Amino acid sequence: MGKDLKGKELGTGISQRKDGLYVARYTDRFGRRQAPMYAKSEREIKKMYRDVKYEDEHNVMVKGAQVTLDQWYETWLNVYAPDKLKPHSIHGYNISYRVHIKPTFGYMMLQDITPVMIKKWANTLHEKGLKSASRVLSVLKAILLDAQIAGLITMNPAVLISVKETHVPKKAVALTSKQLTTLLNNYQYDTKKEYTDWMMIIKFLVLTGYRFGEMAALRWSDIDWAKRVMYVRRTLHSTPGARDEAYFNSPKSAKSVRSTPITEEIEKILNQEKEFQELWRQQSPSYWGRQKRFAKDLVFTTKYGSYLKNSTFNDMLKEVVRRINCKLPEEERLPEITAHCLRDTCASLCYKEGMPLKDIQELLGHGEQAMTLYYIQVDQEEYKERLNHYHSSVFSAMHLEGAKSLEQNWNSSSKNI
């Protein structure tokens, strides 16, 4: 407790210097010592001290708080992000912050960042042709929103800022029945890179509509043979660029936690995978003996007992499609295919076969039917055939009705004569 020059107690954090000035020092709610305040009178310094303490305790912007965006981001990353984002999303936020946000705003005090600065920065991202400009801007908005909630700033300077899309997001392509047949009948891959039976995984994804992570995380314990169902209870993510670093997470949404009936075709795939794993254990006992704990009991693995990576699967598909297209005329070539394309293919083929939309929604684990409809794509060749049939039927009926009308008019005219 400080005192004035006469020895009078002034209260916590306040004292008087030898030159007569009163000084107040305080530590904010984040444990940071703030710059001292000065006044000529006891009354004035006490008012200044009360005001800043009130602002700090009631989450009002502290004028003297010196918090940079970098400092706040570290707090946000450890306190706020884990409650809102999944680990793979946090990884993406980290990349966006480190590469695009930190160089411009990281050193700046939060209260010094203005909407004009953010708009200029966003325009620069667009001019550079950054495809993820809007996503990077949303990262900054989220960080600053929580800074506002924490009382470090009175408003979010990024909340009303927008940026033009550099490109139109490319919709995943669903294979037609003909294209899927071409893929399966002409599948050929380098046996040296064949770490698992990719063909069975292609079929499984087309039949179930599972996301790659849902398929990769499926355990034998998730299969109930008595009820003939399998359960999606988790998803598997691998850390980009890291070796043998993967983790399980909850499915994408509450609706994604679901069960799938085991049909005869799915049963064949599961039984074949079981046989393959037994064979691979015999061929590579040392690898399977060192199998990571989280990889044990997985239904789909490599020949060496490790988990499957989405990137490896997509690379395989790219190579397979390239080999197939080399032998096909241009008009029959397959489009670029990814694991997500097979999910779209499942939705589209189920719809084509007459499966109710509600059933497809359940199969894919969508919360809204609108999302399921987005996945369903029309086979353009079959669409043209159906349209031609419709037009022919309509015009045939119109011609028939027209002919009847002409005959009736002729008969009426004949009677009048």
Walk me through what this model shows.
51% of the residues lie in helices and 8% in strands. It has helices at residues 42-57, 69-79, 81-84, 87-105, 115-127, 133-149, 177-185, 198-208, 212-216, 264-283, 285-289, 310-325, 339-352, 357-364, 369-375, 380-416; strands at residues 2-3, 9-11, 14-16, 22-24, 37-39, 223-224, 229-232, 235-238, 246-249, 258-261. The strands form 4 sheets. It has a 3-stranded antiparallel sheet with strand order 3-4-5, covered by helices on one side. Strands 6-7-10 form a 3-stranded antiparallel sheet, with no helix packed on it. The protein has a two-stranded antiparallel sheet with strand order 1-2.
Structural descriptors:
417 residues, Double Stranded RNA Binding Domain, 4 domains, DNA polymerase, domain 1, hpI Integrase, Chain A, three-stranded antiparallel beta sheet, elongated
Give the topology, please.
Elements: E1 2-3, E2 9-11, E3 14-16, E4 22-24, E5 37-39, H1 42-57, H2 69-79, H3 81-84, H4 87-105, H5 115-127, H6 133-149, H7 177-185, H8 198-208, H9 212-216, E6 223-224, E7 229-232, E8 235-238, E9 246-249, E10 258-261, H10 264-283, H11 285-289, H12 310-325, H13 339-352, H14 357-364, H15 369-375, H16 380-416
Antiparallel strand pairs: 1-2, 3-4, 4-5, 6-7, 7-10, 8-9
Helix pairs in contact: 4-6, 8-10, 8-13, 14-15
